[in-house]
Amino acid sequence: MKVTPPVLDIDALLDDRTTEIIVCCGSGGVGKTTTSAALALRAAERGRKVVVLTIDPARRLAQSMGIEQLDNTPRPVPGVGAGAGGSLDAMMLDMKRTFDEVVESQASPEKARQILENPFYVALSSSFAGTQEYMAMEKLGQLHRQALDDGSHDLIVVDTPPSRSALDFLDAPERLSSFLDGRFIRLLLAPARGPARLMTAGFSVVTNALTKILGAQVLRDMQTFVAAFDTLFGGFRQRADQTFALLQADGTAFVVVAAPEPDALREAAYFVDRLTDDEMPLAGLVVNRVSPAARTDLSAEAAITAADRLRSGDSSSLTAGLLQLHADRVRIVEREQHLCERFAASHPQVPTAFVPALAEDVHDLDGLRTIGEGLADQDGVRR
């Protein structure tokens, strides 16, 4: 039996002033960045004061909004929302700069300098697995605190990192904070923290082994970094917990973004289940790039049969080719419908919006408005 999911009412979500944060999440390549920008633009033009935070390395968001370059500071998007009293700022996460800001805010100037100049910190803040996701959540916390202080924004839209798995956004901060509070770190801290009795023969064996594996200079850099960073460990875990609680709050709404493809919808299902388990507020699912249905009742089988007859009768090859194209399109639509229905059968309570595929990529504000209109108007694309 076909299951029709409830409609995700995008405009109701954007107009609800109790909604302060919208997090767009999903696997890579499904249109999270475009969806985030379209939601932010539509909200601004409906009167909200919006900032959109992207973690997209391709910088497509800046291009589509007519801004030469985005950085770690919100930049106004010209001419947006003025008539309705709204505004739109955009920014792109600078992972290392955000990490530096956390260190500078938590440590004395001298200790901050020691940490920022340490080679191990430079590697950790630039490329350590999970740092980007942690810093995305850190920047979200900063923006939310600023909005509460000065009222500069009343809606934050977050485009989550292009991770291999959508679940990395929720898991990575915990992995990073666990690493910073783990056994290996405590081992490196032992000489600085403990009395001389800790420097036992057993400890010397461990440090000698680490020296052989890592090299003496690398080990010294790590120990220097960890000793300087020691007082900040608890703060990092506390901040991660605070941001995680913010994501669970009633003012946050998760929008899971997918494409009508098996892997993308599988990731979306995992994410919906995870959000449910973690008691996080799920607004619904957006399925991007949906193939428009054919405006005829001619089935794929009938089109193929007619094409075969034309070819066998030596009739117009053009007509036969068009019938074959129609059959291929119908089969694509049927395949997408089957995948979406299977998701709906497993998650019948998840509100869903379908966005038709466009003929070309989005590259300006008008393209984003078209996406926003497609998100809001579900009458013509409901499956």
TrEMBL record:
<dbReference type="GO" id="GO:0005524">
    <property type="term" value="F:ATP binding"/>
</dbReference>
<dbReference type="Pfam" id="PF02374">
    <property type="entry name" value="ArsA_ATPase"/>
</dbReference>
<dbReference type="InterPro" id="IPR016300">
    <property type="entry name" value="ATPase_ArsA/GET3"/>
</dbReference>
<dbReference type="InterPro" id="IPR027417">
    <property type="entry name" value="P-loop_NTPase"/>
</dbReference>
<dbReference type="InterPro" id="IPR025723">
    <property type="entry name" value="ArsA/GET3_ATPase-like"/>
</dbReference>
<protein>
    <submittedName>
        <fullName>ArsA family ATPase</fullName>
    </submittedName>
</protein>
<feature type="domain" description="ArsA/GET3 Anion-transporting ATPase-like">
    <location>
        <begin position="20"/>
        <end position="297"/>
    </location>
</feature>
<dbReference type="GO" id="GO:0016887">
    <property type="term" value="F:ATP hydrolysis activity"/>
</dbReference>
